[in-house]
Amino acid sequence: MAPLAQAVTVSLKDLKAGTVSFETLKEAFGPDSLGILVVKDVPAEFVELRHRLLSYSSYLGNLPKSKLGKCHDFIQLHTGRIAVDTRRSDELENEKAKYLTGWSLGKETLKNGQVDTLKGSFYANCAFYVDPTLACAKPTEQFNADNFPEYLSPNIWPGEATLPGFKDSLEQLCGVIIDVAVLVARACDRFAEQEISGYPSSYLERVVSTSTTTKARLLHYFPEEPGTVADSKAAGGDEDEDDWCATHLDHGCLTGLTSAMFVDEAKSSPLIAAPKFETEEATGLPPPLAPLPELAASPDSASGLYIKSRTGETVQVKIPRDCIAFQTGEALERITAGKFKAVPHFVRGARATSGRIARNTLAVFTQPNLGDEVDLEQHITFGEFARGVITKNTVV
Q: pLDDT tens digits, residue range 13-22?
């Protein structure tokens, strides 16, 4: 079993005061680091928001296929009344955008070439953080909805009749995480302004706080059954069993992460009863769905997030429930001229137990606007960089 590593931890109070030392930042993000920083003492509402949204991940992953594909109900407001429209609406899957908005399952491949059916994900653009009226990034002269739909396709939401309270929960939690990411970026700027000649003042903070390109990915790792890829590997085998999420680098700046939520779906059913209100008689929005009971810990202690260190060692990292972790991405490495390094990481699955254990988590990829430069010497924009990364990724 890979050793458990202790991530560098700082207080939100110190981030706000600007007192996080350069040595601490180098220990967290530098060339010899694990590329992860844990922030404690985050806003009090974070814990409840995390529990609520990660519960929606199980609810979403267990919707009928008819709700995740081409047919799903949606809500229209008419003079204070709600109408459930059963006509065909936008799909929750967006193939044209390479599934970087809405729902996807079985659209990626793992390192062994197998189709990944172990996790489903829901992508949402976080342009609402900058402007609540925006549903996706702002187009530029070079990038528009036709030639870069991955970032310029508007959000697709399940209707309130299907997942009441989901959209609001996601936007609120993402807002808290991005708020903290801005403070982490400010600390990184202080370091970069001293260490990098010609580094623009407050560059990363501006990038993170003004980006309409930031993406959120809500993940639902389905319960594994005996005989799956993970369970078929011999005990004591390769510790780099990246069966739930293959080893990769994030291509943004700072990836905000919640701790994983484990749910025994055999005991706490995430199946949703059909709505009981009728088209013309409903008088208000249905109440949000109740949070699901959370297990105290994963029943498989070896499951979870793994990081490949700079020395080639693979270590496991655990994030406390009341903290937010931030991992480094390729854009940050480029912006800081290699002073901070992107971190290779993967997720190892929970082996099948007597229950049906699902793992839910949220990643918020803070990314530059499409026209912002990520290579300050070669003047490469994030749009150019991201397009290259997406082209290399295999989507089936």
A: 999 999 999 9
**Distance linking the first and last C-alpha atoms of the chain:** 32
Sign of CA dihedral 17, 362, 58, 231: negative
Residue 211: CB atoms within 10 A of its CB come to: 27
Q: Which residue in 236, 177, 235 sits closest to 209, CA to CA? A: 177
The pairs formed by 312-315 with CB atoms below 8 angstroms and a separation of 24 or more are 313/2, 313/3, 314/2, 314/239, 314/240, 315/2, 315/3, 315/4, 315/5, 315/34
In order of 110, 359, 366, the CA distances from 224 in angstroms are: 16, 10, 31
| pLDDT higher than threshold 60 for residue 239 | no
Name the maximum alpha-carbon separation found in the chain.
Answer: 65
pLDDT (tens digit, 9 = 90+) per residue, 56-70? 999 999 998 878 864
Cα 316-347-213 angle, rounded to 5 deg: 115
Is 51 in contact with 294 (CB distance < 8 Å)?
A: yes
Q: Which phi and psi (to 5°) does residue 218 adopt?
A: -90, 125
CA 201 – CA 198 distance, rounded (Å) = 9
281's tokens: 């008689």
Q: How far apart are CA 117 and CA 108, in angstroms?
A: 8
**Tokens coding 250:** 């994030």
CA-nearest of 196, 191, 171 to 362 is: 171
Residue 203 tokens read as 């560059």
Are 347 and 244 within 8 A, CB to CB? yes
222, two tokens: 């389905």
Is 251:389 a contact under the CB 8 Å cutoff? yes
Rounded CA separation 213/81 (Å) = 34
Confirm if 215 and 126 have CB atoms less than 8 A apart: yes
DSSP code for 291: P
Three-state DSSP at 123 gives strand
